[in-house]
């Protein structure tokens, strides 16, 4: 199982600074590419541009040592993502020459077929790769992705469910499944997936937030109350720096108020939480976007949360 | 770094001196045939100073502490990684081709 990668605030700032530096010709392209790979970011256009500039410079390329091949792979995938299929083909050809028997290169070739839209051929390539190694997780995932790329979302769900029966601990797959369910408005199923994700990574505020969003969308008094609790835990884990969670608290309070029409038992606690959220929002807007403060107050007024 | 290291070395030296003084004091007690009632004042002072210096050096020399609170900038998750295993190429980026001169030489 691979390591859990999450992009923290510091790392985000670091990668943006490096990207800026590389874009302005300040050097550090290789560090940037390593960081993008480590954090699993999808910045294909930049990776393609800066990766090619390294690969096309023989001295720079040979100074990488064995990392050179990793870079070929990274650039090949980025090129497919940018529809620069010639570049992808050339990169894969180089890798094929170096590692003639490699399954990993075989996977890249199949992905190139996908990028060309030759679904049947890609499927054939993946099945033959699976025959050699039936438990190759990445290939199982590619099949689900392929169904999604062709627009068969239900097919993708089916592949993912089959996959998750075997590899239950794969949180990336759970997340993909959750996102597909949300896009199909199957919120109950999506909520189940987010529960799994919260169980596997309880300290990640973004899963709490997504779960709360799904519950809020489902509606109903009980769901709104649970959603509010999860928004509150997202606030707890982010130290109140997540605006969406703060808004979530406000909207849940409003929704609960609408549904109960004043017959609220735990009124005091509710009003306290909501007024804290409103204060935090106002403070945040004053600091970062003073121009939009009037917009915020009119929104809150329409939610009857402030006078 | 330099200052912390010097202070650390000084602390270790003071501690070793305290040990040396203790040994000397014990042999002095044997010669004068007195009972041991407690360590001499200079050893106690040296021990306290040595402890302080060594502790300060140990806390500053190896580097900065990393935060353990979940909402510090080091730990706060602001975005999830792109789910690269499920990446699809059939997206609207197709309609916006990049510069044509990209080529692997």
Rough shape of chain B? Answer: rod-shaped
**Structural class of the secondary elements of chain B?**
mainly alpha
User: What is Rg of chain A?
Assistant: 24 Å
Q: What is the makeup of the main sheet of chain A?
A: none
User: Share of helix among residues of chain A?
Assistant: over 70%
Give the rounded overall mean pLDDT of chain B. 87
Number of strands of chain A: 1
How many helical elements of chain A? 17
Low-confidence stretches of chain B: none
Estimated helix fraction of chain B: 40-55%
Mean pLDDT of chain A: 91
User: Which stretches of chain A are low in confidence, meaning pLDDT under 50 for 5 or more residues running?
Assistant: none
In percent terms, what proportion of residues of chain A is strand? under 5%
Question: H/E element string of chain B?
Answer: HHE
Largest interface: A-B, 59 and 30 residues
Order of helices and strands of chain A: EHHHHHHHHHHHHHHHHH
Cα-to-Cα separation, first versus last residue of chain B: 47 Å
Organism (chain A): Camellia lanceoleosa
Protein name (chain A): ER membrane protein complex subunit 2
Pfam family, one (chain B): MMgT
GO molecular function, one term (chain B): inorganic cation transmembrane transporter activity
């Amino acid at each position: 199982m691979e390591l859990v990668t999450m992009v923290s605030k510091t790392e985000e700032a670091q990668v943006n600074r490096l990207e800026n530096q590389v874009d302005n010709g300040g050097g550090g392209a290789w560090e940037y590419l390593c960081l993008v790979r480590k954090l699993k970011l999808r910045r294909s256009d930049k990776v393609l541009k800066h990766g090619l500039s390294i690969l096309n410079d023989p001295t720079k390329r040979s100074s990488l040592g064995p990392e050179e091949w990793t870079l070929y792979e990274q650039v090949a995938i980025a090129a497919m993502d940018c529809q620069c299929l010639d570049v992808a083909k050339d990169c894969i050809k180089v890798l094929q020459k170096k590692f003639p028997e490699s399954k990993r290169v075989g996977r890249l070739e199949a992905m190139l077929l996908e990028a060309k839209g030759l679904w049947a051929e890609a499927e054939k390539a993946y099945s033959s790769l699976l025959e050699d190694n039936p438990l190759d997780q990445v290939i199982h995932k590619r099949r689900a992705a392929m169904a999604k790329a062709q627009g068969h979302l239900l097919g993708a769900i089916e592949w993912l469910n089959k996959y998750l029966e075997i590899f239950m601990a794969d949180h990336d797959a759970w997340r993909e499944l959750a996102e597909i369910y949300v896009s199909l408005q199957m919120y109950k199923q999506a909520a189940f997936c987010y529960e799994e994700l919260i169980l596997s990574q309880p300290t990640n505020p973004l899963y709490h937030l997504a779960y709360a969003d799904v519950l809020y969308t489902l509606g109903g008094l009980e769901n709104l109350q649970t959603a509010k609790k999860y928004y509150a835990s997202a606030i707890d884990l982010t130290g109140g720096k997540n605006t969406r969670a703060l808004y979530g608290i406000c909207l849940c309070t409003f929704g609960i108020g609408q549904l109960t029409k004043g017959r609220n038992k735990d009124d005091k606690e509710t009003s306290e939480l909501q007024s804290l959220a409103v204060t935090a929002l106002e403070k945040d807007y004053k600091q970062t976007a003073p121009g939009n403060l009037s917009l915020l107050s009119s929104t809150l007024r329409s939610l009857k949360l402030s006078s | 770094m330099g200052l912390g290291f010097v202070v650390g070395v000084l602390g270790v030296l003071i501690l070793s001196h305290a040990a040396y003084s203790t040994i000397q004091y014990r042999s002095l007690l044997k010669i004068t045939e007195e009972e041991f009632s407690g360590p001499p004042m200079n050893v106690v002072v040296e021990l306290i100073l040595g402890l302080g210096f060594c502790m300060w050096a140990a806390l500053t020399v190896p580097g900065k502490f990393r935060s353990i609170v979940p909402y510090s900038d080091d730990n706060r998750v602001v975005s999830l990684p792109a789910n690269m295993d499920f990446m699809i190429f059939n997206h609207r980026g197709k309609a916006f081709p990049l510069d044509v001169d990209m080529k692997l030489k």
